[in-house]
Amino acid sequence: MLLFRPIHALFYSLFLKSGQVVALFFQTLAELGSLSRHWASTFKFMLQFGLYTLPLATLIGFFVGMVTALQTGMELKKLGLTDLMVGPLVGISLMREMGPVITAVIVTGRVGAAMTAEIGTMVVTEEVDVLRSLGIHPVGFLVVPRFFAAMLMVPALTVYSILAGIWGGAMVATNYLNVSSAIYYDKLFSAIKRIDIESGMCKTFVFAAIISIVCCYCGLSTTRGAEGVGRSTMSAVVISLSSILIADYFMTRFVGIG
């Protein structure tokens, strides 16, 4: 029985924290009306999610497209299908799965961790308590601007990452696989359907909500000084990435998105 107690405690803690994250999500939706009072901070977070992350997302998206084209092209070459299939495979895989997921991973590591550390530091230095004493709701002041910025900028960032990946795939297709750029782009855009675009965009909105809410929750839950800030930051990254992949699976498998 002693063996099962830690497992029981783990599942209880997971269930409890999941409920608290969901509660924070609905509190954030309820406080969206306060956004008009925090446009300056919202714009700052939009820059963090968007402009400042754009070079990294573009670079990684470019090389993901190159790797995808290289791996699929080498196999398709054996079947003589390189001209017909490399473009569609790169485009659809980036649009449905790799673009949204890779971008979400980048945002989690670059912006999400910083958000958690910033909010966690405010908690341990009692700045959040000061906000409450002044009658300012911490969710409206700290979470809503970050949530709105994520929902606006992460999808835009994903689009740039996908386009960079398509371009990277074209570089490999034309220079290594001997596929003309005209054929590559023609087959790629002919294969991509409306459902592929809707699927990718739906996923990226869900991932943006997961990143912003989970990272803010971990920041607000910080305890025990600087050590607690580090622990909260680690938890935010781990939980966000795990939740993103789990959500991706369930949206693909049961909802039919992807």
* Alpha carbon gap, first and last residue: 42 Å
Low-confidence stretches: none
| Order of SSEs | HHHHHHHHH
The percent of residues in helical segments reads: over 70%
Number of helices: 9
Kindly state the number of beta strands.
Answer: 0
Could you report the average pLDDT, rounded to the nearest whole number? 91
Radius of gyration: 21 Å
Instruction: Give the class from helix and strand content and strand pairing.
Output: mainly alpha
Number of domains: 1
Strand content: under 5%
What does this entry look like structurally?
By secondary structure, the protein is mainly alpha-helical. It has one domain (52-255). Helix content is 86%, strand content 0%. The protein contains nine helices and no strands. It has helices at residues 4-30, 39-49, 54-79, 82-124, 127-133, 138-175, 181-191, 194-220, 225-255. The relative contact order is 0.16.
Throw out a few tags for this protein.
258 residues, mainly alpha
Please give a quick description of this structure.
The chain has 258 residues and is mainly alpha-helical. The protein is 86% helix and 0% strand. The chain contains 9 helices and no strands.
SSE map:
Blueprint: H1 4-30, H2 39-49, H3 54-79, H4 82-124, H5 127-133, H6 138-175, H7 181-191, H8 194-220, H9 225-255
